[in-house]
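The authors assume throughout that readers already know how a fold can be written as discrete tokens. What matters is that the chain and its backbone geometry are given together, residue for residue. A single example would do more here than another paragraph of explanation. For illustration, here is how one protein appears when written out as sequence plus structure tokens.
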Amino acid sequence: MHFTLRQHTQDFLMHCRQKGHAPGTMAAYKLSLDKFLDYAEPAGVTLAEDVTRTLMRAYVTHLGECLSPGAAHARLRPLKTFFRWLEDDEILEKSPMQRVPMPKLPRKVLPAIDTAEVQQLMDVARSTKHPFRDRAVLAVLFDTGVRVSELCALQLDDVQTGGRIRVQEAKGGRSRVVPVSRAALRHLTRYVNTERPETRLPYLFLSNDETPMNRDSVKQMLERLCRTAGLPVFTPHTFRRGFAVNYLRNSGDVFTLQRILGHTTLEMTNRYAVLQDDDLKDVHRRASPVSALKR
């Protein structure tokens, strides 16, 4: 008995849920697989064995005609993972996406907050209803590069001695420990000791109603601070990119950055760490081997 392609996609999604993939990742995987089925089934392709490289090339072309390169790339990545899973499970001998070229992504500089802008937000946060909490949130976002979901999931005992924060509810279920500076720890200590409500809740950052902060409340907090400071509205992800760029500007290496950000591949880290031309010039000036030669 042959399982249909649709049945295999359902098994794959169940496998991903069991591995602890985040809800956002699961939604992206399901959308990608559903859209591919909508393309393949009307063409009479209902079995995994019938998916050919020619079909996949045609699908890549189809996506390129109706989506941006970035959106097409995002739609195809879950398919590569799906067919690799079928290959590993020996349902397919080879993935039909082998040697199928992915859309080329433009190498553009994504928005990233800089140190001066963070300082403006820190200054504005002194006058909010929760100045110690808001400044601590800003400090942790910019000092560690954690995702907003990871920030909201932090608990009191995740702040460890020795300048470390344990990130337990990380993307993909992979926990990690990230370093944190003394300055950021001082902001956290002031918040916990003077402003955080007395409660049995273990979560570090609490909202006005003493419930854990979530991604919406963090975004709203940032929006208020940015508007008050007269700055563009920065999202939590611009802090993550800002951390990555400033880490490299300050002579950090990309391999350590990959571990801190919790990326499984350097390719993902490199998307965050796109430096401006002036940054490259400054790095080259410090690292140039010719500069060390005698005149």
In short: The chain has two domains: 5-88, 115-284. Residues 245 and 273 are 5 Å apart (CA to CA).
